């Protein structure tokens, strides 16, 4: 039996909720196709977030890991292409750490690409009427930190586990207090995530279709 590990973050930056966790926690003990889903909440803290992630990987030995985070201001579910080996925090994390121009992992490669079929995942969500996109940057905050740490860990594990990162927009209740901020209903994001999981479990080779950006 396959296991899928989903992670979401605790709230940060003054928010009382984080859509990544609000969506992910709906999947605890759910079965998708032939895979059992388990979930884990990560602290929005440099270093500790990667430690908690690695502990969950050790515990569950998943064949697929999808980490989720918030990208306030984005209009679509964003499937990330690449994580870079840089922590460069514009704001402090939840432990008041603010690393600047530091590597996620000292001596690690400059970047890791997601090992899930990112374009197929986006294409499947779009086909279901769910706004989605390939994103070329996971940023340089804790989300990128976790994505890089995840792919570094999977690259050094035996087996064929796949990993990736998905950014979610604000929830409507978050956007309601922000001027002109896009949002997406939790139910829509949940449906998109299920499609993303199913695609990542069943598609071996990614689609050769456009997913780039012009800026």
How is this structure best described in words?
With 215 residues, the chain is α/β, with parallel strands linked by helices. It has one domain (2-202): Aminopeptidase (3-Layer(aba) Sandwich). Helix content is 30%, strand content 21%. The chain is built from six helices and nine strands. The protein has helices spanning 19-24, 48-60, 118-127, 142-155, 172-175, 186-202; strands spanning 2-9, 31-32, 35-42, 64-70, 77-80, 82-84, 111-113, 132-135, 162-168. The longest helix has 17 residues, at 186-202. The protein starts with a strand and ends in a 13-residue tail after the last helix. The model has no long low-confidence stretch (mean pLDDT 96).
Keywords, separated by commas or semicolons:
single chain, globular, Aminopeptidase, 30% helix, alpha/beta, 6 helices, 7-stranded mixed beta sheet, 21% strand, 215 residues
Brief account:
Pfam families: Peptidase_C15 (PF01470). The chain has 215 residues and is α/β, with parallel strands linked by helices.
């Amino acid at each position: 039996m396959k296991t899928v590990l989903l992670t979401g973050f605790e709230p940060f930056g003054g928010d009382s909720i984080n859509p990544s966790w609000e969506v992910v926690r709906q999947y605890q003990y759910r079965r998708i196709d032939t895979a059992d889903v388990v979930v884990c909440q990560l602290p929005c803290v440099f270093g500790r977030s990667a430690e908690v992630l690695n502990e969950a990987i050790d515990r569950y030995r998943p064949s697929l890991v999808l980490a989720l985070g918030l990208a306030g201001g984005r209009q679509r579910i964003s499937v990330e292409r690449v994580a870079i080996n840089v922590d460069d925090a514009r704001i402090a994390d939840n432990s008041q750490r603010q690393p600047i121009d530091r590597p996620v992992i000292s001596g690690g490669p400059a970047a890791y690409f997601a090992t899930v079929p990112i374009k197929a995942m986006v294409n499947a969500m779009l086909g279901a009427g769910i706004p989605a996109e390939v994103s070329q940057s996971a940023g340089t905050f804790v989300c990128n930190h976790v994505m890089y740490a995840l792919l570094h860990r999977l690259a050094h594990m035996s087996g064929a586990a796949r990993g990736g990162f998905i950014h979610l927009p604000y929830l409507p209740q978050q956007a309601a207090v922000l001027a002109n901020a896009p949002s997406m209903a939790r139910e829509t994001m949940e449906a998109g995530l299920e499609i993303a999981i199913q695609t990542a479990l069943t598609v071996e080779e990614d689609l050769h279709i456009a997913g780039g950006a012009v800026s």
